[in-house]
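Lab notebook: predicted structure, single chain.

Context: the supervisor wants predicted structures on file for every construct in the current expression panel, including those that have not yet been purified. This is the next one on the list. No modifications to the sequence; it matches the entry in the shared construct table.
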Amino acid sequence: MRDGTRLALGISTLAILAACGGSGDTLFGSDDGGGDSGTGDAGGAGDSGNPADGGPSDGASTPDATADASPPPDAAADAGVCAPLAAGATDVYVDSRFTGSPATGARACPLPTILKGMAAAALLSGTRTVHVAGSTPALVYGETSAVPVAANVILQGDGPAKTVLNAAGTCGSGICAVMLAGGGTIDGIAVTSPGASGGDGIVAAHASPAPVVKNVTANGCKGSGVLALGAIELGPNIVASNNGAQGVQSPAAANGLVHVVAGANSFDGNAANGVNIDGAATLSFEGGTASGNTFNGVRLFGVNAPAALTAHTIAGLTATLNKNTGISVFNSQSLTLRSSKLLTNANLGLFYIYAQGTALDLGPPGSTGGNVFGGATVADRNGKAGVYLCRARGAATQSAEGNSWAACPPTQTSMAACDVMPSAYTDVAYATAPATTPGAPVVATTCTVGP
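Prediction complete. Output recorded below exactly as produced.
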């Protein structure tokens, strides 16, 4: 366990101990998020035993992006068929099964590697698509270096169950399998970078327009599945699971919108967090799972400065069986949470720290949050509390209408400080700022017993 650090928060100074291993401690932490061996990643997991930060997953995969792959091209194609790509061509084909000559990148005479496909695309102009063949069982392309996907280039596979890219090469100051430029797209492919020299799966540049990753799995990487250095479009149907660091990582120096598009998305079973935002980036999460991670399902660390207020929106999230929390929020950040299920996490469903100018929206008066924070049985609850509010703004109330708890109205327990866990389960645990009047903060006139 690392030495404790202190976190300065808006109105009050909050002592939160950090534990950066996989320990079972239950102390809160102003952790650095753990480490990530990937490119330029300043942040990581955090602390398995505290509500500031905090196991195996189902390792689900996304549906195939296309129908069954085409059969291998004719190995006997002659030079008359295998003409060079025309100057105005916009499609390049790759198939490792082709044994004819010459391989030009035309449909009948595909190139043997993705790297050669990208090199051919670089000689063309406009929006270009590099089609990478797949099969059952999957075709695995073991590339000799990181694959660059340039602006206006689409790397198109036959679906992550059929087309697999396995690579490790230099990406800036780190190692990755794919370097994705702004305006570039990866679609229908599995990306991995395992092994001793492995790093992050996909490193997405900080550029405009935002890089796009959809119908992709980024699983089993030594580092993070996806490292977003700026804004990024993720999904639909993205899986970033069972990686050695984060599922998706936005490092401390990054900003822009991390947009998880609604679909069969999952960020499960990672050695750190499912989704980790270490800096000023904004998360818009429209649906998916972040379960079974060694620390938290979603960790929003943010920037501790009033000028850097960030407002996140999470909807349709299922965060279960994480070894600390379903969601942890620190440092001058607002959160709107809707229709999400935060259950069976080792410590807390939601941990939230208020700061000057921030807001937590769990369901305003006259509306419905639709979140599930607890159930009637122990098996349907988080380990310590459904919600933990570190109330730096004092005695103000928190609306939480139309949610489900272990009891209705939800039980609420005052804590001496934000680094103290409840001794027994409670729906809401809260700690007030110094010199404020304690009082049950959550107002839930409409509620149900979940799940």
